[in-house]
From TrEMBL:
Segments forming domain D-isomer specific 2-hydroxyacid dehydrogenase NAD-binding: 108-282
Pfam families assigned: 2-Hacid_dh, 2-Hacid_dh_C, PGDH_inter
Domain D-3-phosphoglycerate dehydrogenase ASB: residue ranges: 325-443
Name under which the protein is recorded: D-3-phosphoglycerate dehydrogenase
Taxonomic placement: Bacteria, Pseudomonadati, Pseudomonadota, Alphaproteobacteria, Hyphomicrobiales
Annotated D-isomer specific 2-hydroxyacid dehydrogenase catalytic domain residues: 4-314
EC number: 1.1.1.95
Keywords: Amino-acid biosynthesis, NAD, Oxidoreductase, Serine biosynthesis
SUPFAM superfamilies linked: ACT-like (SSF55021), Formate/glycerate dehydrogenase catalytic domain-like (SSF52283), NAD(P)-binding Rossmann-fold domains (SSF51735), Serine metabolism enzymes domain (SSF143548)
NCBIfam families listed in its UniProt record: PGDH
Pathway membership: Amino-acid biosynthesis; L-serine biosynthesis; L-serine from 3-phospho-D-glycerate: step 1/3
Alphabetized Gene3D superfamilies for the sequence: 3.30.70.260, D-3-phosphoglycerate dehydrogenase, domain 3, NAD(P)-binding Rossmann-like Domain
PANTHER family for the chain: D-ISOMER SPECIFIC 2-HYDROXYACID DEHYDROGENASE FAMILY PROTEIN (AFU_ORTHOLOGUE AFUA_6G10090)
Length: 532
């Protein structure tokens, strides 16, 4: 039974769902903050369910020898070292919609709180001061709201802003004009947004491009008296520059939910009377926490139990419905890759994958990942569908994918073409109704071969006696042949043989075959026919 650790505070719903779906679960909501203890125990788990407190570092990943999936009950995954996870073949998934409304509402709440200085006025009133003249606010009606990052949360904030009679402008490189019109907002570039906005609200992820997007230079481009809201990530703002601007009055107020360093128990923004701070409460409603807990537990269980992949950051999705139909073709793609990976010694430069017939309408991203995993595995044993695309990219492999309608006798097949500096190799295969992969073409030569754990592949002369030669040498070496396939491109031309053996071929037998002038090459092959 797969085993999951929940290392941050999650609704009990998550624990129940894991149990109901056949996953053992340990709920330790504080262990995420105890790095050393987490390092000690992480090796026991197949899954890790987190929020933002647990830092999934390269060190933790190295210690997580059984880990297959990290599930983020929430949106931001900047606390997970995704390249390190991908390299180890660990899927990282999040719940991209579960807390969006809640977070958007928090941004709007902070904007209104800053506009009317509600927290300060509350503190003063409850202290018995009745400072009616001290708290002069601003209306938001008719004001310009600049939304930086108009994805799920940003677009909800934008429409709420429109509902509050604000003029909403947005900067997001991926926002289309059409979508902007649908939202009733104006798409602008960043400088225009900075220059025109009375309120600026941030809703981008924290990436190398967005880090420090609000700094002294960008603040200088803003209107005097602008108010800034940040419910996304602390690293988007250079806090020292914001403090300077708040003190000078250039920025009239700020609503800050997220900080450069969290938990933020000390911060230069604290104590300024035009700042409203909350302790990363963007997602903190009972509704949002139920949503993300339920989603993350369902997604992680589906992956660990059924192989379905939903909302993964580093792997194509595979729905629970398509997983059973896709499974044999994933195996096929992997086997084709493994075949070429075993016969290729040179560095791979280009990989082309052709999807013919029914395979063209399948989840080809997953099939490509499987083919790459098979191709790389003979060199790097622990590669899988998550790590293979990243490894291929790191090795500079040029990848292309072709899909086409049914072109021959098979309902569909996959053909892999792999180029090295010296050779181009092709292999094609299909799955029959028994769900087992078959090789149907090697080097353009048609055949129909079952895939076995131990195989022998030879390129040889097309001359009499080859069958006898292979049979007698293997027989002498006590290697039983389960299946024997021959093929050639033309009489007397290129010929191949593919043998399915009952046992691994001994070195001496291989050497004898290789020494025979009729055999150009002989390669033992191994396939993991039961795994995956
Ligand atoms: N305070 C909280 O508790 C809380 C809760 C949920 C999410 N968040 C944060 O909010 C962020 C946004 O969440 P989301 O669900 O809207 O994500 P999303 O992916 O739907 O939207 C992010 C948008 O930012 C845009 N973007 C990326 N780089 C940009 C750039 N350089 N300039 C402008 N726009 C850029 C993207 O195109 C995308 O449309 C998350 O990454 C997370 O860090 C915080
Ligand atoms: O990215 C998110 O989903 C939010 O930052 C929420 O973080 P939390 O789960 O730690 O509250």
């Amino acid at each position: 039974m797969p085993k999951v650790l929940v290392s941050d505070k999650l609704s009990p719903t998550a624990v129940q769902i894991f149990k109901d779906r056949g996953v053992e679960v340990d709920y330790m909501p504080d262990i995420g903050k105890d790095k050393d203890r987490l390092l000690e125990i992480i090796g026991d788990y197949d899954g890790l369910a987190i929020r933002s407190a647990t830092k999934v570092t390269a060190k933790l990943i190295a210690a997580a020898t059984n880990l297959k999936v990290v599930g983020r009950a929430g949106i931001g995954v900047d606390n997970v070292d995704i390249p390190a996870a991908s390299r180890r073949g660990i899927i990282v998934m999040n719940t991209p919609f579960g807390n969006s409304i809640t977070t958007a509402e928090h941004a709007i709440s902070l904007m209104l709180a800053v506009a009317r200085q509600i927290p300060e006025a509350n503190a003063s009133t409850q202290a018995g001061k009745w400072e009616k003249n001290r708290f002069m606010g601003v209306e938001i009606t008719g004001k310009t709201l600049g939304v930086v990052g108009c994805g799920n949360i940003g677009s909800i904030v934008a429409t709420r802003g429109v509902g509050l009679k604000m003029h909403v402008i947005a900067f997001d490189p991926f926002l289309s004009e059409k979508r902007a019109v649908e939202l009733g907002i104006e798409k602008v570039d960043l400088d225009e947004l900075l220059a025109r906005s009375d309120f600026i609200t941030l809703h981008t992820p924290l990436t190398d491009k967005t880090r420090n997007i609000i700094n002294a230079q960008s603040i200088a481009k803003m209107k005097d008296g602008v108010r800034i809201i940040n419910c996304a990530r602390g690293g988007l703002i250079v806090e020292a520059d914001l403090v300077t601007a708040l003190k000078s009055g250039k920025v009239a107020g700020a609503g800050i939910d997220v900080f450069e360093a969290e938990p933020a128990t000390e911060n230069a923004l604290f104590g300024l009377d035009n700042v409203v701070c909350t302790p990363h409460l963007g997602a903190a409603t009972s509704e949002a926490q139920e949503n993300v807990a339920l989603q993350v537990a369902e997604q992680m269980s589906d992956y660990l139990v059924k192989g379905a992949v939903t909302n993964a950051i580093n792997m194509p999705s595979i729905t629970a419905e398509e997983a059973p139909r896709l499974k044999p073709f994933i195996k096929l793609a992997e086997v084709l890759g493994t075949f070429v990976g075993q016969v290729t010694e040179d560095p791979i430069k280009e990989v082309e994958i052709l999807f013919d017939g029914q395979t063209a309408s399948m989840n080809t991203s997953a099939l490509v990942s499987a083919a790459l995993a098979g191709l790389i595995r003979p060199q790097v044993a622990d590669v899988n569908m998550v790590s293979a695309p990243i490894m291929a990219k790191e090795r500079g492999v040029i990848l292309s994918e072709i899909r086409r309608d049914k072109s021959g006798v098979f309902d569909g097949y996959i053909k892999l073409t792999v180029k090295t500096p010296t050779k181009t190799r092709t292999i094609a295969g299909t799955c029959f109704s028994d769900g087992k992969p078959r090789f149907i073409q090697i080097k353009g030569i048609n055949l129909e071969a079952e895939v076995g754990e131990h195989m022998l592949y030879t390129t040889n002369q097309d001359s009499p006696g080859i069958i006898g030669l292979l049979g007698s040498v293997l027989g002498k070496g006590e290697v039983n042949i389960a299946n024997f396939q021959l093929g050639r491109n033309r009489a007397g031309g290129d010929a191949i043989a593919l043998l399915y053996l009952d046992a691994q071929i001994p070195d001496a037998v291989l050497a004898e075959l290789r020494a025979n002038p009729k055999i150009d090459s002989a390669k033992p092959l191994h396939f993991d026919i039961n795994g995956g």
